[in-house]
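Anyone opening a protein record will find just a pair of labelled lines. A complete record is shown below as an example.
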Amino acid sequence: MVNCKQASELMSQSMDAPLPFGKKISLKFHLMMCHGCTNFLSQISFLHKVVSHFDTCGHCESMHLSDEAKKRIQETLLKQQDKVV
């Protein structure tokens, strides 16, 4: 059985491509027992839909982040990653 970290990775992968049968079953089994991961799947599914819609409606071309903003985001993500590991 997969743990929550593995389940979150599988959920993320499933947003980009179908999971192999064994991994899909393992994830579904985990989701039946884990309310936290079920909630996480709901949240990332919503975000995936919003981002997909936003990307197709033509607004992305007019929006750009400054290099400073990109650097701040990258630094924050790296700090968060260090806290998880």
